[in-house]
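Chapter review: from sequence to fold.
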Amino acid sequence: MEYKFNFELLPVLENKKVEEFNFKKTNFNLLKYYLSEINWQAFFNENQSLEKIVSTFYNVLHTGIDYFVPKCKPCKFKFPVWFSKALKEKVIQKKIFHKKFKSSHNNLFYDEFKKLRRDCKNLAHIDHDKYIKSTEKLLCKNPRKFLTL
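The C-alpha cell string follows.
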C-alpha cells in the first residue's frame, strides 16, 4: 500500500499592527505654521490641470499630517456598542486579576477574578437587554432612523 500526499506551501500572512493617527494630540500650532509657510503660488499655477492641483494639495496636507499628528497603536480593547462603561471597566479588571492569578497562582486573585466574572455576566445580560429594548423602541418610533444606524 502506498500513499502519496501533495502539500502546497502558502505564504504566511504577517500580522502587522497598523498605527493610527491620534488627532486629539495634534500640534495644531506647528501644523498651522507649516501650512502658512508654504508658497502656494508656486504649487498652483494656471498651466496645471485641476487633478494635478488637487493631488499636490493633498500631498502637502498629508505631509503636514505625517509630521504633526502623532501615531498610536490601535486600542487593545474593542467592546460591543451595547457595553456600558461599568461593564467595560469590570471586563478590564477581570482580565487584570486573571493575569495576576496566572502568574502568581494566588487564590485571592482567583477569588476576585471569579467575583468579577460573575459581575460581568450579570452586567452583560442587563446591558444587552437594555440595548435590545432601546433598539426595538427606536425601530417602532422611527424606522427610517433605525435603518441609518
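Two observations follow directly from the output. The longest strand covers residues 20-21. The two ends are 61 Å apart (CA to CA).
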